[in-house]
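Closing statement on the iron/sulfur cluster sub-project.
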Amino acid sequence: MDKQKIILEKIKEWGASEVGFSYLGDVLPESLQDLKYGISVLIKLSDRIINEIDDKPTYTYFHHYRSVNTLIDQITLKTVLLLEKWGYNALAVPASQSIKELGEYRGLFQHKTAATMAGLGWIGKNGLLVTEKYGPRVRLGTVLTDFELEPGTPISESKCGECNLCVTSCPAMALHGRLWEAGIDRKEIVDAHACSEYMNKNFKHIGRGSVCGICIRVCPYGIKI
Ligand code: SF4
Ligand code: SF4
């Protein structure tokens, strides 16, 4: 079996709902240019838990959010160890990370960029990855590697259309209602500062001010009838 297929099967066996492969050479910062290929790990969130979110997050959602992040970090670590065993270089981007030096609420590399380039979904008006199958009810991880992968077909256009549900539901009025296209700055879609401020002010007692979930719960792509 070829190595890419082994990676795909292993990651699914370890618990991922979807796996995507991408070429990131055109979008990586200089410091990561030695690892031009991306492996996106997607975990679907629990419908029961997301459906319980109303005008605020729940304690259970906060726990779930952190559990899924831990699972993602374990899967991406295992993937790195497998790639290193085969003699390749690889780096797991933490599931949830905010590096002050990189600017507002940014991690080492944007999971969502890798996921759109792998063809897993588009960026919704909520600023989150939206997939056909699960809507935005997903969490993401990314492994960067120098192992040459066959990439998926990138998605470069939004499928939100006229929908505005997340925009009108956001209590922080942090969403601008702008349709995403590849390359657009996140600031055009979401005011990350307003979102974070609102969560810190209103949900500190529930999720330490780091989760909300309203714009995830309302998305029709994620609501199963
Ligand atoms: S997480 Fe909450 S506050 Fe932030 S954009 Fe979504 S709905 Fe608005
Ligand atoms: S709620 Fe509507 S506008 Fe918002 S991400 Fe989902 S489909 Fe897009």
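Residues 130 and 136 are 4 Å apart (CA to CA). With this model delivered, the sub-project is considered complete and its resources will be redirected to Aim 3.
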